[in-house]
Request: fold
Amino acid sequence: MYGPSTIAARRIFKRAIIQGGLEAVSLMSKAGIMPGARGMGAIFTLHHVRPATTKEFDPTAHLTITPEFLDASITKLKADGHIPVALEDLPEFLANPNQAGPAMVFTLDDGYRDNDMHARPVFEKHGVPYTVFISGGFVDRTHSIWWETAEQLINQVDEFTFDYGRGDVSLPTRTLVEKYAAFDRLHKTFTCAEQESIASELDAKARAAGICPTGIVDREVMDENELRQLATRPLARLGAHTIGHLNLAHLTSEQMRSEIIRSSERVAEITGEMPRTLAYPYGDRCAAGPREYQAAEELGFKLAVTTNPGVLHRKDLRRQFALHRISLNGYYQKRRYVGALASGIPFALI
Ligand SMILES: [Zn+2]
Reply:
């Protein structure tokens, strides 16, 4: 059992290690000693894109980058020879041996309203295509976003009581360190788990504290009309991201397929055509595996993306339903890190 300050120290330590890796690779690249590891490019994952805030308790800061950082990243990638490619055109790109440079592919998960407000103008300025993955339950305000609910709830209360699996546990959440510890414990509970019952317990606790979980979704996520507008933009594509944003690997096969099929149909109602791309919610190895990859293929997608980190290679043509992505992470918003991330090397270092 670790105390709140140990958990906080681990958070800081992990960030320092990754930052160190990025600095090292950025220096190696500057010195011209970077091995040719960038492969055929990278698919980048973004979530929120919005101006920097000065929130004290910000447990999901890694999910937010600023429009200025996005702008600087694209400028840097272009200068390094990366070519903008739409996600759904990636298989043709990878199959062509005569490409002038590696690809840069942009994806944004969850359909946040700031994507249209702050990211779209940057993509349009640079002529860069992008795919927004939307969850039907967020679009229709029938499902909450647990990490947004948890942030607001834990920020507000001085004590957080939750059943993490073995009965109610009360944690003090007065100080910032205690708040981060409670959030991290909840995060751990949601990771690699059947999430529906945990999410409804969290929603009930939030409501009891006067917070409306679907009200948060309404504030943060684009609704059907906004998505319809966005889909008419020439560089924008919408992709499927299920209905309930649940860990698919922990659902029955029928539930998992239904989550995917219904989300495709929901996208088609908005855009007029079935989406060709799918992003598995959470997307790591305990949220999507061979069963989900096979379902994506059988359900008619052209490709699907995970959040397993890595750059693109020609061999990805043989694993089109388990493509790797690289997160543009809010903790590392420095222009020089983007080239390092796109090189794929930091993943070997951490
Ligand atoms: Zn997501």
User: Anything to note?
Assistant: The chain has two domains: 4-143+221-349, 146-215. The first strand starts at residue 41 and ends at 46. Residues 4-143+221-349 form a domain with the TIM Barrel fold (CATH 3.20.20.370). The chain has a mean pLDDT of 89.
